[in-house]
Amino acid sequence: MDRGAAGAALAGEQDARPVQVRITNLNKTFQRNKESVHVLHDISLEVEEGELLVLLGPSGCGKTTLLRCLVGLEKPGEGRIELGERTVVDAERRVFVQPNRRDVAMVFQNYALWPHMKVAANVAYPLKARRMKDEIKRGRVQEVLDVVQCGHLADRYPPELSGGQQQRISLARALAPRPALLLLDEPLSNLDALLRIDLRAQLRLLHREIGFTGVYVTHDQEEALALGTRVAVMKEGRFEQIGKPGEVYHRPATEYVADFLGARNRMALEVAADGTATINGVPVPGFVRPGFTGSYALRMRDGDLTVRPAGATTVDDRRHWVAGARLLEVLPAGDHAEHVVVMGDSTLFVDVPAALGELEPDQDVEIGLDPDHVLCYDVDGRLVDDWAAIR
Ligand SMILES: Nc1ncnc2c1ncn2[C@@H]1O[C@H](COP(=O)(O)OP(=O)(O)O)[C@@H](O)[C@H]1O
Ligand SMILES: [Mg+2]
C-alpha cells in the first residue's frame, strides 16, 4: 500500500500547531433606534498558534466588531470564544472574561498613544499591572522598541513623532506584554502610500521573526495578500471564503470574492441546449466545453483581458476574440495603459502593456479572452470548474 501521501497528510495533522483562537457560532446584534442590527452572523473560525489571519472586507461588514468581541469590548449575544485552553466567552453559560484578563492586545488605526507620556512610558504601560521587577520591565520595553526599530525614541513624546513612528510605538506597546493574541485594526490606513508599503514589509518580517498569533483587519486586498498566512474574506457579517492568499486570489470561491480581489470585469455567458455560447449576446464558438449549458457570469482581472481593433487577425491560439465592443478611453499608466471598453451592458477595464502600444479611443474593438484566466460563476455566484473547452 502506498502510504506516502496519506501518511504525510496524517503526520501533517499531528504536527499542526495548537489552536490559539477558536470562535464558535458567534452572533452579535446592536440596538439602533429601537431596531436591532444583526452584525455578526454565526461566525466560526480557528486561528492556529503563530498564524497571522487577515480579515478582509469592505467598510461596515463587521471586521472591527469581531475584533472587539475577541478583545472583550463587545459582548456577543450567542456563541463561544476560546483562547488557547481558556473559554473567555460562552454566551449560553454566561461566561464573559473582562478585557484585562484575556491576554489580548490591540493596535488601532489612530495609534492611541498618551501624548503626555514619553514613548518608554507608553510602552511600559501595559506592564504596569504585572508584578515584574522594574529592571525586567525596562529591559522588555527596550527590547520591543528595538524590535520595531524605535529604540532611539524612548525619551521622546508621541506628538514629536511621525505617523509611521507612532504606529510602530503602538505596535511595541501591544507586543510588550507578549500577548497570546495580537489584534490589528487597519493599523496602516492612516499612513501615506509609500510608508504603508514599507511598514507592511516590516510587519511581515516581524511576524516571521517572533511568530506572534495575530488577527489583522484591512479593506485593502494587496495588504491582505501580502501579510496573511490565511485570508478570511467577509461580507455582511459572514465569511465568504477562508484560505491561503494564493487560493483566495486564484480561485475566489464566490463572485463577491472575485470582485473584491480585483476581478472587477464582468460579462454574461449564456450557453443554449445545443451548445451555442454567447458572451454579452455575441456568439463565441468553441469557448465552453460540450454538454455545458445555462447562465453564468464571467469574471476577469484587468491584466487578463486584451483588446485589438475590430477585424484584426492577430494570431493567438489561446485567446477567443469577442467582437462588438467599443473603446471609449485610454489612460496611460506608465508601464501599461488602461483601456476603457464598453460591450453591451459591461464596462471593461483592460490593461495593455505599454510596449504593445495604445489604441486610439472611439473605435470598434474586440476583446481577447484566455479561458485559463477567466473565472466562471453560476447564478448563485459560486465558482464553476471545468467549464472551458480548451485548457
Ligand atoms: N455600537 C454600535 N451600535 C450600533 N451599530 C454598530 C455599532 N458598532 C458597529 N455598528 C454597526 O455594525 C456594522 C459593522 O461595523 P464594523 O464592525 O465597525 O465594520 P467594519 O470594521 O468592517 O467597517 C456597521 O453597520 C456599523 O454601523
Ligand atoms: Mg472597522
UniProtKB/TrEMBL annotation:
Coiled coil: none annotated. SMART domains: AAA. The keyword Protein biosynthesis does not apply. GO terms for molecular function: ATP binding. Residues 21-261 form the ABC transporter domain. Pfam families: ABC_tran. This is ABC transporter ATP-binding protein. Signal peptide: none annotated. It comes from the Bacteria. Keywords: ATP-binding, Nucleotide-binding.
